Amino acid sequence: MNDIYTLHEGSRPLLISVPHVGTVIPPDIAAALVPRALQTEDADWHLDRLYDFAHELGASLIVPRHARYVVDLNRPPENTPMYPGANNTELCPTHFFTGEPLYRPGREPDAAEVAHRVARYWRPYHDALAAELARLQAAHGHALLFDGHSIQAELPWLFDGRLPDLNLGTAGGSSCAPALRDALARVLAAQSRFSHVVDGRFKGGYITRHYGRPAAGVQAVQMEMVWDCCMQTQAPYAYDEARAAEVQPLLRALAQAMLDWQPGGD
């Protein structure tokens, strides 16, 4: 354990990452933010709890402590936009998902501050994530990465309309083997409770695109789930046991499908 993340090392080749679940904001950064930001409304709430079945599956689980308002762990360190032509939040976000400013006037992070946050918060998480994938690949011959996210179903500043409940991203098919993508799509298609799409608006962020290298033995996918599936969508954003009990078996089935997949089938 450390002050940046917690990592549970599993015994099977799957690592589950939930990079936006953190809510800690250091005091020096908090002082520059508008008061509303201290509620960390754009966190991926409760995913560490929702994905705690990782332990039973023998999967690894990495969980950050700090809020995405400090630094976004799913953005490239060069701060290039993930979705060109659309509104994007940056490596060190300056806007809420609703478009309003996160910072008090004139207090936005400059280049030196962004570099500091990358070194202090972003780099250790990614070093640990990369090291765990390397450990899994060395032990099993391949590694699997499931990157878990959640979001409000409707956010006009970021996208039009309403998102499907479950949005599976494989960077347009480039971050995992075709047979694995097909296996996960079949799990989603076998149920009717939750709407779903594969490689729709959310095709996978930096983590999926950077670490997913099928030819090199690392398969990566992203799941963007709407909040309605597991929680109350208004502050204080409480976990909803009844809703979570419906979606958790499906998420577990997706994780199990990844573990059941074997290299060499494509």
Summed up, what is this model?
The protein is an alpha/beta fold and 266 residues long.
Descriptive overview:
This protein is of the alpha/beta class. The chain has a single domain (5-260), classed as Aminopeptidase, CATH 3.40.630. It is built from seven helices and seven strands; from the N terminus they run E-E-H-H-H-E-H-E-E-H-E-H-E-H. The protein has helices at residues 27-30, 47-50, 54-57, 111-140, 178-189, 206-211, 241-260, and strands at residues 5-8, 14-17, 60-64, 143-151, 166-169, 196-198, 218-226. A seven-stranded mixed β-sheet has the order 1-3-2-4-7-5-6, with helices on both faces. Helix 5 packs antiparallel against helix 7. It is globular. The termini are far apart. The mean pLDDT is 95.
Strands, count: 7
C-alpha end-to-end distance? 38 Å
**How many H/I helical runs?**
7
Rg from C-alpha positions?
18 Å
SSE string, helices as H and strands as E: EEHHHEHEEHEHEH
Contiguous runs where pLDDT drops below 50 for at least 5 residues: none
What name is given to the CATH topology?
Answer: Aminopeptidase
Q: How many domains comprise the coordinates?
A: 1
CATH class: Alpha Beta
Oligomeric state of the chains in view: single chain
Widest sheet, order of strands: 1-3-2-4-7-5-6
Helicity, in percent?
Answer: 25-40%
